[in-house]
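Raw record, unedited: Hydroxymyristoyl-ACP dehydratase
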Amino acid sequence: MMIPCSEKCLYEKDGLCDLKTVIPQSSTPTPDCPYFTERESKNKS
């Protein structure tokens, strides 16, 4: 199943959700995705 993902989510890859298994819902879900987990910035100072 292909699920579009335009959020800055840990599971986003090439504009699609790359989550392969069901996991517990995140503590910060978005209205469209209960599994949203914000991706950490690669440019940490």
